[in-house]
Amino acid sequence: IRYVKEKPTLKQMQEFVGGFIEVVYLNDDEVMIIDDDGKGKGKPVNARATIEATRNKVIFNNDWIAGDVIIMDKEFLD
What phi, psi does 22 have (nearest 5°)? Predict the structure, then answer.
């Protein structure tokens, strides 16, 4: 997981996650940026990101997050 404190460009986010991005809204303040096809590409389970997403109730208990992710303030999407 990479926590960012400055607004990344779309290109930076795509390069870090290794593909097209998907935005997962964790809570009122934060989003998780993931590869939209991380599972399909066979990327490994990201246990820390999966725990974070499950804890925030944004994925089901039997689901998982695959690959590298970015967590950042929701305001950076504007």
Answer: -130, 140
What is residue 78's predicted lDDT score, i.e. its pLDDT?
84
What would the pLDDT profile of 24-52 be if each residue is shown by its tens digit?
Answer: 999 999 999 999 999 999 999 999 999 99
Exposed, middle or buried: residue 72 (CB in 10 Å: 0-12, 13-18, 19+)?
buried
Give the separation between CA 52 and CA 72, rounded to whole angstroms.
13
Closest-CA residue to 36 (of 3, 4, 10) = 10
Question: What gap in Å lies between CA 60 and CA 77, rounded to an integer?
Answer: 24
Q: Locate the DSSP E strands across 1-78.
A: 2-3, 21-25, 30-35, 70-73
Among 40, 43, 46, 51, smallest CA distance to 69 is for 46
